[in-house]
UniProtKB/TrEMBL annotation, chain A:
Single GO BP term: positive regulation of RNA splicing
Name recorded for this polypeptide: Ubiquitin-like modifier HUB1
Record-linked SUPFAM superfamilies: Ubiquitin-like
Source superkingdom: Eukaryota
Protein source organism: Suhomyces tanzawaensis NRRL Y-17324
Listed GO CC annotations: cytoplasm; nucleus
From TrEMBL, chain B:
Superkingdom to which the source organism belongs: Eukaryota
Amino acid composition bias (Basic and acidic residues), ranges on this chain: 408-426, 595-607
Lineage, broadest ranks: Eukaryota, Fungi, Dikarya, Ascomycota, Saccharomycotina
Region called Disordered, residue ranges: 29-52, 408-440, 583-607
Family matches, as InterPro entries: HIND, SNU66/SART1
BP terms from Gene Ontology: maturation of 5S rRNA; mRNA cis splicing, via spliceosome
Keyword presence, ATP-binding: no
Organism listed in the record: Suhomyces tanzawaensis NRRL Y-17324
Entry protein name: SART-1 protein
Subcellular location: Nucleus
Claim: S-adenosyl-L-methionine is one of the keywords in the record: no
The family this protein is said to belong to: Belongs to the SNU66/SART1 family.
A Gene Ontology term for the protein's cellular component: U4/U6 x U5 tri-snRNP complex
Keywords of this entry: mRNA processing, mRNA splicing, Nucleus
Amino acid sequence: MIEVLVNDRLGKKVKVKCLESDTIGDLKKMLSLQLGTSYDKLILKKGYSVYKDHISLDDYEIHDGFNFELYYG
Amino acid sequence: MVQEISLSLEETNKLRISIGLKPISVEAAETAPSTTTKEAPLTSESKPELTIEETNRLRASLGLKPIPLEEAASLVEAPIGENKPTNDDQVKLRLLDAKERLKRKGKTLLDDDQEVSQDDWLANLGIPAPKKAKTSKKVSPSHDLSGVKIGHNARELADVDGEIFTLKDSDLLEEENGELNNEELIRQAKLKKDLREKKMADNIKFNGRSYKFEDSEDEETERVLQELVVTGSTIKIPEKTTEIPKERDNKIALGSLFDDDVDAEKVEPVKMKKLKKRPKMKLKLNSRSATINNEELGMKTVELQSFDDSVGDEEAQLQEMISNRIKFKQSKRSKLTPEQIANDVVLSKRWELENQLEGELYANNTVYNDIADFLNSLTGSVLEVPEEDDYDEIKTETLASTTSIKKEVDVPQTQDEAKEETKLEEAGEESVAPDSTPTFNKGLASTLNFLKSRKIIDASTQQQQHESKMRREAAKEAELLRIKISIEERLLKEEFELDKAFLNLPKAERAEVLERALDQRLREKNIISDAPARGKYAQKSQSSRLDSYNPQVKLSYKDDTGVELDTKGAFKYLSHQFHGVGPGNSKVEKKLKKVKEERESTSETII
């Protein structure tokens, strides 16, 4: 299990527990449950790279304590 | 500010199950590198924090200035918030000051020295050591301390009770007497200074300007106070702390210095100000309300202006009247009930029908010509059947030289008739008649036939005849319908005129009632139908109506300059308009030039 941080820099900072085998889409779903925003409206970024829904966290080499930038589409 | 959300493992598992994901096992959570208790597990585990010594070594290797140990320690010991003096601290300071003053009045360092005389040391051999130890803290040779500066101000000194002062390191060659310092105080001062610098830097960062600090005054005072000098055995501390209340007193005193009159004077202008302000506000409000009124009654103002501008201008008045009437009507219309609207619709339908019928009557600009109609009907019925007989007769006439008088008499008669009815054709007939010498013993029909054979009158085809016939029929129908409606209307009016209740109604309502009744009656008698006819009959009637409809339409598109466009150009023009784009300036200029040249050339050719 890993715990990742998601910050939208607008006042929301969420810690999400997830498995490395989860996809970004799954993470978004979890996030949407915690934030109350629809998961298809969430955009996870780091720098200029946008994380795609069908790829797993492991493939992205996302480790524990990873910081995501959250944007709303 | 930041809303940080983190859920427990149980909660996350619940959510995961609700989504359809597999729950996170508790074992996995335990073996995981991070737990919920740790805030930043990554930094704490994979990269443990370096000690100051290590960081300093690294900094030295990089060529940076090492972090001083003292500062680091102070940073750890004293958090930023504690250094800010509060009201309570100030009160404490004052209390401590007062205590110290009392102590100093009773005893001085020199007094202590006098008590312990150095000369008769033998006599004092029996005195216990602790006293000396006590003095050793405070005491230092008087001559040594005289003229020595103290590197702290009164406030700071008040804070330090029973602390050790040390001589500041200085060069041996320096002539100055030296400076007494307290390590703790120095550390605090440094910390303060650092903080100030940091703040300054922040300010510069955010605003691009350097602001004067609020504490700058305090700083200056501190600098002044820093130069305290030890005179003899006492440290002269200027009573700075007492100045603060003095200032306050002054303020109060200044306030109390003013007499009642002065106060009154002072108050009065304030009142005046208020009075001044109020009317201003009122004026503003008035102006605002005035503007609002203007906005609300915009029509009125416009009317007034128009009156002023053009008293004799009747046109403007007329237009206003019309616009007012239209508005009145519109407002009335908005108040109509659904029933009235339905009636209006029915009425308008009837009017449309009547208009349509009228339109059919005068469709294709056909003028009902009695003569032409008569002649056309003759061709259909009379002319075609006896054609052969006519020819035979003509032959016989030409063959036989002797003609009967009766026949000769008949011919001019027929000619006269033809003259009366068709004047234009007559001339042709006269010019042609002597050559072929036709006989018109069969009346108009023979004349017409002859004219057609000579192509003086265009022989209309079967289709044309049919079309014209259809048109005529439609026109007849329309006329009939109109007559029927008018008859019904007249009858209804007569009926209603006998009704007293109807006569009592106002004019407008009377017309309405009449219209309604008429409509109803027409529908009852199937003179007009509300719904269009359906089924094959409807199709038939529609198709039969459209049989004669053959308009010749030619579409032509023109651009802004009036140049006729072909289909491609027209499409391009329309699409440009639709999408809000167009050709560039150069293209437009080129086109305009071309058009100009063309026009010039055409004008030249005309000349």
